[in-house]
Specification:
The chain starts with a strand and ends with a helix. The chain folds into two domains: about 150 residues, Rossmann fold; about 140 residues, N-(1-d-carboxylethyl)-l-norvaline Dehydrogenase, domain 2. About 50% of the residues lie in helices and about 10% in strands. It has about 300 residues and is an alpha/beta fold. The longest helix has 23 residues. The structure holds NADPH dihydro-nicotinamide-adenine-dinucleotide phosphate and 1,3-dihydroxyacetonephosphate. The site of 1,3-dihydroxyacetonephosphate (13P) has 12 residues, from helix 7, helix 10 and helix 11.
Length: about 300
């Protein structure tokens, strides 16, 4: 039994606290205080050796700057996204605060709503430090099968990019374009994210496995996904503001789309689906954008 601190009591942080709490002593904290078991102050959590951080990618940089004090903690990053304003990956953002050997990244198909019901789930723990991944793997309960990998970039790219493809898939569904279109969009999305990942040295195995195909198939085919629901909202002609208000939770695909657009311009990369999603988030008519993309 280990002591683990979870930072961020949103959907994913709470589900992970529940899962990890099956066989460990788990404490949780969040920006907004909650009346939940083992809720403690941030100060208390930061004293623990093992931390899971479930703060979204768009907020983590300022959170680290304002709150984090490194004390040789071992960190498991649970967020999936690329910073919109800078195009930075999470491992870059954490770098000035946590050394490589102390950090791991969680990936794989895992709706919080199913984890909190103890439904069977498979996750990948990605770290350059294989001992650390192996250690984090021991914390999970039997209903979560864990795999480990050293392909941090692959896990990061896949986890972030699948959210963008999920938005596109939601638009496709919302426009009633059919299952043929959805399947072609998802498979081309997988190729697009893999090609993008190679630019950063990501490995093929992450894209064909749980972190890539697994998470993409889950998110891009279900209304349980917030990003998929963002796509449905776009297809209905709703504004980004309206969609986010209705959602009431984070949809990392939006910020990641802006990040990808920035990176594509800087590095002159061809990211066709991400580019169409960007245009639609910026107000282009989805009937034109997605239909054009799917036809000759
Ligand atoms: N939900 C899911 O099924 C999964 C989510 N993820 C990823 O996990 C991450 C978190 O998602 P999820 O928990 O679902 O999102 P939620 O919207 O449910 O929760 C967001 C969390 O982030 C915290 N937060 C937001 N802004 C700030 C800030 N400026 N400073 C500090 N804390 C902040 C919130 O704190 P508070 O509420 O206390 O204000 C809350 O704990 C995302 O990257 C998501 O992609 C990954 C796998 C599965
Ligand atoms: O990452 C997730 C499942 O693996 C959650 O996806 P959404 O954020 O789209 O709900």
């Amino acid at each position: 039994m280990s002591k683990i601190g979870v930072i961020g009591a949103g959907k994913w942080g709470s589900a992970l606290a529940f899962a990890l709490g099956q066989e460990n002593e788990v404490y949780i904290t969040s920006r907004t205080p909650r009346d939940v078991e083992n809720f403690v102050s941030l100060e208390e959590i930061l004293k623990l050796e093992y931390l899971v951080i479930a703060i979204p990618a768009q907020q983590i940089s300022s959170w680290l700057e304002d709150n984090f004090v490194f004390n040789n903690q071992k960190i498991l990053v649970a967020a999936k996204g690329i910073e919109a304003t800078t195009g930075r990956f999470l491992n870059d953002i954490y770098k000035p605060y946590v050394p490589d050997e102390n950090i791991a990244f969680l990936s794989g198909p895992s709706f919080a709503a199913e984890v909190i019901k103890s439904l069977p789930t498979a996750l990948v723990i990605n770290s350059h430090n294989e001992n650390l991944s192996a250690k984090f793997a021991t914390f999970f309960p039997p209903f979560i099968k864990t795999y480990t990998s050293t392909d941090v970039m692959g896990a990061e790219v896949a986890g972030a990019y699948k959210n963008v493809i999920a938005i596109a898939a939601g638009i496709c569904e919302g426009l009633g374009l059919g299952k043929n279109a959805a399947a072609s969009l998802i498979s081309r999305g997988l190729v697009e994210m893999q090609r993008f990942g190679y630019v950063y040295g990501a490995k093929e195995e992450s894209f064909v496995g749980l972190s890539g195909a697994g998470d993409l198939f889950l998110t891009a085919s279900s209304t349980m996904s917030r990003n998929f629901r963002v796509g449905l909202g776009i297809a209905q002609g709703k504004s980004q503001k309206e969609i986010l208000k209705e959602l009431g939770e984070v949809a990392e695909g939006i910020g990641t789309t802006y990040a990808l657009n920035k990176i594509a311009k800087n590095k002159d990369l061809y990211l066709p689906i991400a580019t169409e999603v960007y245009k639609m988030l910026e107000g282009e008519d989805p009937h034109i954008s997605l239909k054009n993309f799917l036809s000759n």
